[in-house]
Amino acid sequence: MGAKDLLSHSFRIAWKDLTELYRNRLGLVLLVLMPLFMMVMVGFIYPSGNSAPTNLPVALANEDTGYTGYGNSIFLGQNFTMALLHINNMTSTFALSNATNADDIKSQVQKGDIEGGIIIPSNFTASIVAGQQGTLIIVTDQSNPQVSATIQAALSIVFDQLGTAFALQKLNQTNMAVVKPFNVQTVGVVSGTPSYFDFIAPGIMAMTVMMSVMTGLPVAISQEKEVGTLDGMMVAPINRLSIILGKTLGQTARGLLQGVVILILAAVLFHVAIQGSILLVFALLLLGVFSFVGLGIVITSFAKDQETAQMMMMTLMFPMMFLSGVFFPIQQMPWYMQDISKVLPLTYASQALRKVMVLGAGIPDITTELTVMIVFGAIMTAIAVPVFRRMMTR
Amino acid sequence: MTKAFGNFVAVDSISFDVKKGEIFGLLGPNGAGKSTTLRVLSTLARPTKGTATIGGYDIVKNDNEVRKLIGIVSEKMIMYNRLTAKENLIFFGNLFNIPKSVLMKRIEDLLELVQLTKWKNAQVGTFSTGMRQRMNVIRALLNMPQVLFLDEPTLGLDPQSSVEIRDFIKKLNREDKTTILITTHMMVDADLLCDRIGIMDHAKIVALDTSTNLKKLISGKDTTIVKIEVGNLSPDIVEAIRACNCIDSVSQENSTHLRIIAHSDEAFDTVIDAVREKGGKINSMENPQPTLEDVFLHITGHEVRDSADQKIPMAMGRRHFGAPQQGRVR
Fold first, then answer.
1. Do A40 and A113 share a domain, yes or no?
2. Taking the alpha carbons of B206, B208, B211, B217 in that order, is the dihedral positive or negative?
3. Interface TM-score (ipTM) > 0.85
4. Which residue range is the domain that position A170 belongs to?
5. What is the pLDDT of residues B299-318, one digit of tens each?
């Protein structure tokens, strides 16, 4: 009963599990669909740099009465409107419509026809001509703070560009040099514009692999226990460890397969580029498996049946998913939540993956994460093995 | 040997020998401790106290040696539905480190033996219950066990399949000299198959002998068995019979038939009087040979079915009540 037997039996069990998985066509499809849904869902729900909102229904009410003097009339409100339309044609941020006045906008917002409105007051031209600031009023829908924030942000960009355009126009007219006081340029650590997909792809990969060992393992073993097939393995003269090792191998292969699916989807559909070494990415995923497998085995040992196993998993999984910075940056959370997040292994797994995939980090840059994952994995495995042995020989 | 789950004692200090080459039956109602005994003997559970040896190996200290000698046919089907018959057998065979060429030959032989060769490449999930049970049996034979454990092998099978399985077990025992330990709550199985029978009830073995000797326990004495058919059977009549002094037990077999065990030479007269007094109309009466069921009833004081609704699942260690069994009047 040497190590060779242990490994060969483990491989047989893993191979058996994978054959079963392969025959389960619906399961296979879901294996690909689940990460796809997850990516699409979180990737599109949250706004990011290149996925600026488009076609927000916004109404424009031009109440500008203009200014008449020196024999001609000027309507700067019209100029503004044209400039806005011109810029919007390029960005398609808004779906603009006309409104008669402020009250009209208000009622349209209340009805839900539009998300917000822009009002050019009657004294707009007059103020500017008088050398004062022209005021524009933005009406926002307070019931939807996120959309109204987006409108404000988008409009401020438009105004900024309009301001420059006006200045340039004035420059032509008056030959006065107006220089924009400063110009901000954003530079990332790596080239290219980051998108939310770059942020979530590593997190989802880490999470999927974690899920496959943490849920897959207890469910797979407790299911065999329930069906009775576990007895078939238990009554064979094999090392008990090869059962758990084989099962883990099978689940790991499944998890890695999903990881690859995510990677391909991310690269092909969402143009996520991997900046670091792809080998390191896989090494990290494997290390992730190692750090979670102990926890999975402990749960397996305590769960009496499949249902309990699943419930135990869900209880642990959900907080982990949301607190580990997979979907939201940890920095956004209040401090006490950040503290909880710091004790979860998934936090480190997704952080390390993110550093490698997005920032092109190497091993020296992620030593903290690696240490935490190795230590956590070692502790859990040390707890798991005796617990599992006890469960098997009840 | 004793096996307890928490405070619940499933097997209470039982002790028995099984001779090499015999078919030994553990007979008793569900929850009597038969399956637990089998699980402990097949190294799937550890005894709480005591131990057992199989082929000279201790089931606790030399569990892997024991595992090489035994095969187990569980009440549950040990096979993977998504694998084909052949793949299942290869998988389990590999766990026993059987050399590939030997294993392949053996698999072909076993499939042939139970007439499943035609379906060897079909997924087991598509098999009928009878086919699955045959698969379940040959899976246990892959390592050519010297001792075969069978846990309720005919459970849920139609009479035809039951006969097939029984014949197969007999053949194994006769031709391969396999020692067989079988648990069942079916009297027929025990009667037709077993060389010796241990009757288990409430975690203990209450009687152990050959079927013939067990039956002599009741037929030899002044015990009389009366089978009576009453056309207009009513609870009143049953109660009247039960009230008689010499009556040990009354069980109702169907809407008209009663089976009565009495300890008197005048049992027939007593029963006839009691029935007629209540206006019962006797259609027929006979004096049948004792069955194992009568023996069980005689020894334990209750019927096999009575305690059938208290099955304690292995993993749970707590009580789980199944569907109530149809009660019988006694």
1. no
2. negative
3. no
4. 56-174
5. 877 766 544 444 444 333 33
